Amino acid sequence: MLQNVHIKAGNVNKLYIYVHFNITNKTKAQCVSRRSLHMSRTLFEQNQIESIANQFKLSPNVLTQALTHKSFKHGNTPNNERLQYLGRRSLEYFAVDLNKSQNAQQLNQIIEKANESQHLVARFDALGLESAVRCQLPGNNVSPAVKSKVMQALVGAVYHEQGLNAAREFVKKTIFV
Protein backbone atom coordinates (compact mmCIF):
# COMPACT_ATOMS: atom_id res chain seq x y z
CA MET A 1 0.00 0.00 0.00
CA LEU A 2 1.28 3.45 -0.92
CA GLN A 3 1.88 5.64 2.11
CA ASN A 4 3.33 8.88 0.75
CA VAL A 5 5.14 10.36 -2.21
CA HIS A 6 7.82 13.07 -2.23
CA ILE A 7 9.23 14.75 -5.29
CA LYS A 8 12.70 16.26 -5.07
CA ALA A 9 14.47 18.20 -7.79
CA GLY A 10 17.77 16.78 -8.89
CA ASN A 11 19.87 18.55 -11.47
CA VAL A 12 18.33 20.69 -14.19
CA ASN A 13 16.79 17.83 -16.15
CA LYS A 14 15.87 15.29 -13.47
CA LEU A 15 13.34 14.83 -10.73
CA TYR A 16 13.55 12.15 -8.07
CA ILE A 17 10.28 10.68 -6.90
CA TYR A 18 10.44 8.98 -3.51
CA VAL A 19 7.62 6.55 -2.82
CA HIS A 20 7.21 4.97 0.63
CA PHE A 21 5.30 1.70 0.67
CA ASN A 22 3.50 0.81 3.89
CA ILE A 23 3.53 -2.98 3.36
CA THR A 24 7.28 -3.39 2.91
CA ASN A 25 8.17 -0.28 4.94
CA LYS A 26 10.68 0.61 2.23
CA THR A 27 11.23 3.74 0.22
CA LYS A 28 12.00 3.49 -3.49
CA ALA A 29 13.54 6.31 -5.47
CA GLN A 30 12.79 6.69 -9.16
CA CYS A 31 14.63 9.17 -11.36
CA VAL A 32 12.42 10.75 -14.01
CA SER A 33 13.31 13.17 -16.78
CA ARG A 34 11.54 16.51 -16.30
CA ARG A 35 10.36 16.45 -19.91
CA SER A 36 8.60 13.12 -19.51
CA LEU A 37 6.78 14.05 -16.31
CA HIS A 38 3.42 15.76 -16.89
CA MET A 39 1.73 17.01 -13.75
CA SER A 40 -1.68 18.55 -13.49
CA ARG A 41 -1.95 22.25 -12.85
CA THR A 42 -1.11 23.49 -9.40
CA LEU A 43 -3.57 25.48 -7.34
CA PHE A 44 -1.62 28.65 -8.18
CA GLU A 45 -1.90 27.97 -11.90
CA GLN A 46 -5.60 27.19 -11.57
CA ASN A 47 -6.20 30.47 -9.71
CA GLN A 48 -4.24 32.30 -12.38
CA ILE A 49 -6.39 30.73 -15.13
CA GLU A 50 -9.58 31.65 -13.28
CA SER A 51 -8.36 35.23 -12.82
CA ILE A 52 -7.55 35.59 -16.53
CA ALA A 53 -10.85 33.89 -17.45
CA ASN A 54 -12.74 36.46 -15.37
CA GLN A 55 -10.76 39.27 -17.00
CA PHE A 56 -11.77 38.13 -20.49
CA LYS A 57 -15.18 36.77 -19.43
CA LEU A 58 -14.33 33.27 -20.67
CA SER A 59 -14.89 29.89 -19.09
CA PRO A 60 -11.68 28.43 -17.58
CA ASN A 61 -11.87 25.40 -19.90
CA VAL A 62 -12.03 27.46 -23.09
CA LEU A 63 -9.30 29.79 -21.84
CA THR A 64 -7.09 26.82 -20.97
CA GLN A 65 -7.61 25.47 -24.48
CA ALA A 66 -6.76 28.86 -26.00
CA LEU A 67 -3.54 28.96 -23.96
CA THR A 68 -2.51 25.39 -24.87
CA HIS A 69 -0.12 24.95 -27.80
CA LYS A 70 -0.25 21.71 -29.78
CA SER A 71 3.22 20.76 -28.47
CA PHE A 72 1.84 20.36 -24.93
CA LYS A 73 1.68 16.67 -24.01
CA HIS A 74 2.49 15.80 -27.64
CA GLY A 75 -0.90 17.07 -28.86
CA ASN A 76 -2.87 14.63 -26.71
CA THR A 77 -4.84 17.37 -24.93
CA PRO A 78 -7.26 19.88 -26.44
CA ASN A 79 -5.17 22.65 -27.97
CA ASN A 80 -5.71 26.04 -29.54
CA GLU A 81 -5.48 25.21 -33.26
CA ARG A 82 -9.20 25.57 -34.03
CA LEU A 83 -9.60 28.64 -31.84
CA GLN A 84 -6.52 30.11 -33.50
CA TYR A 85 -8.02 29.56 -36.96
CA LEU A 86 -11.27 31.20 -35.90
CA GLY A 87 -9.35 34.08 -34.33
CA ARG A 88 -7.15 34.64 -37.38
CA ARG A 89 -10.17 34.82 -39.68
CA SER A 90 -12.03 37.03 -37.20
CA LEU A 91 -9.09 39.45 -37.05
CA GLU A 92 -9.17 39.72 -40.84
CA TYR A 93 -12.91 40.40 -40.78
CA PHE A 94 -12.63 43.03 -38.02
CA ALA A 95 -9.73 44.72 -39.80
CA VAL A 96 -11.92 45.17 -42.86
CA ASP A 97 -15.07 45.98 -40.87
CA LEU A 98 -13.38 48.72 -38.85
CA ASN A 99 -11.75 50.28 -41.94
CA LYS A 100 -14.52 50.13 -44.54
CA SER A 101 -13.68 53.49 -46.06
CA GLN A 102 -10.17 52.45 -47.15
CA ASN A 103 -9.31 51.37 -50.68
CA ALA A 104 -8.44 47.76 -51.55
CA GLN A 105 -4.67 48.20 -51.32
CA GLN A 106 -4.91 49.84 -47.90
CA LEU A 107 -7.29 47.11 -46.71
CA ASN A 108 -4.77 44.43 -47.71
CA GLN A 109 -2.09 46.21 -45.67
CA ILE A 110 -4.43 46.51 -42.68
CA ILE A 111 -5.32 42.80 -42.89
CA GLU A 112 -1.62 41.87 -43.00
CA LYS A 113 -0.88 44.08 -39.99
CA ALA A 114 -3.80 42.60 -38.03
CA ASN A 115 -2.24 39.12 -38.11
CA GLU A 116 1.39 40.29 -38.10
CA SER A 117 3.38 38.27 -35.60
CA GLN A 118 5.31 41.25 -34.17
CA HIS A 119 2.12 43.17 -33.44
CA LEU A 120 0.41 40.19 -31.81
CA VAL A 121 3.50 39.40 -29.71
CA ALA A 122 3.56 42.99 -28.43
CA ARG A 123 -0.12 42.73 -27.45
CA PHE A 124 0.54 39.33 -25.82
CA ASP A 125 3.39 40.78 -23.76
CA ALA A 126 1.21 43.74 -22.74
CA LEU A 127 -1.39 41.33 -21.35
CA GLY A 128 1.27 39.36 -19.43
CA LEU A 129 0.06 35.89 -20.38
CA GLU A 130 3.41 34.11 -20.74
CA SER A 131 3.26 32.26 -17.43
CA ALA A 132 -0.17 30.82 -18.28
CA VAL A 133 0.76 29.39 -21.70
CA ARG A 134 1.00 25.61 -21.88
CA CYS A 135 3.61 24.39 -24.38
CA GLN A 136 6.60 22.07 -24.50
CA LEU A 137 9.12 23.62 -26.79
CA PRO A 138 12.88 23.76 -26.24
CA GLY A 139 13.97 26.67 -24.08
CA ASN A 140 12.41 28.40 -21.14
CA ASN A 141 10.69 31.25 -22.94
CA VAL A 142 7.55 31.11 -25.05
CA SER A 143 8.49 31.68 -28.70
CA PRO A 144 7.05 34.64 -30.65
CA ALA A 145 5.20 32.23 -32.97
CA VAL A 146 3.42 30.61 -30.02
CA LYS A 147 2.60 34.04 -28.54
CA SER A 148 0.97 35.22 -31.77
CA LYS A 149 -0.99 31.96 -32.07
CA VAL A 150 -2.22 32.34 -28.49
CA MET A 151 -3.43 35.89 -29.22
CA GLN A 152 -5.32 34.66 -32.28
CA ALA A 153 -6.76 31.81 -30.20
CA LEU A 154 -7.91 34.30 -27.54
CA VAL A 155 -9.80 36.25 -30.19
CA GLY A 156 -11.31 32.97 -31.39
CA ALA A 157 -12.25 32.00 -27.83
CA VAL A 158 -14.02 35.30 -27.19
CA TYR A 159 -15.84 34.98 -30.52
CA HIS A 160 -16.78 31.36 -29.76
CA GLU A 161 -18.11 32.03 -26.25
CA GLN A 162 -19.51 35.57 -26.47
CA GLY A 163 -20.28 36.19 -30.11
CA LEU A 164 -19.45 38.70 -32.81
CA ASN A 165 -20.02 41.97 -30.94
CA ALA A 166 -18.02 40.96 -27.88
CA ALA A 167 -15.17 39.76 -30.09
CA ARG A 168 -15.23 43.07 -32.00
CA GLU A 169 -14.94 45.01 -28.72
CA PHE A 170 -12.18 42.68 -27.49
CA VAL A 171 -10.21 43.24 -30.70
CA LYS A 172 -10.70 47.03 -30.52
CA LYS A 173 -9.46 47.14 -26.92
CA THR A 174 -6.62 44.63 -27.04
CA ILE A 175 -5.39 44.24 -30.62
CA PHE A 176 -6.12 47.46 -32.52
CA VAL A 177 -4.92 49.96 -29.93
What is the number of independent domains? 1
What is the third-level CATH name, the topology?
Answer: Ribonuclease iii, N-terminal Endonuclease Domain, Chain A
Number of strands: 3
Question: Averaging pLDDT over every residue, what do you get?
Answer: 81
Shape field: globular
What's the end-to-end separation, in Å?
Answer: 58 Å
Domain RNase III: 61-176
Protein name: RNase III domain-containing protein
Pfam families: Ribonucleas_3_3
InterPro entries: Ribosomal_mL57 (IPR040030), RNase_III_dom (IPR000999), RNase_III_sf (IPR036389)
Structure explained in plain terms:
The protein is an alpha+beta fold. The chain has seven helices and three strands. The protein has a three-stranded antiparallel sheet with strand order 1-2-3, with no helix packed on it. β1 (2-9) and β2 (14-21) form a beta hairpin. The longest helix is centred in the last third of the chain and has 19 residues, at 144-162. The protein is globular and about 50 Å long.
Descriptive terms for the model:
single chain, 177 residues, alpha+beta, Ribonuclease iii, N-terminal Endonuclease Domain, Chain A, three-stranded antiparallel β-sheet, 3 strands, 51% helix, globular, structural constituent of ribosome, RNase_III_sf
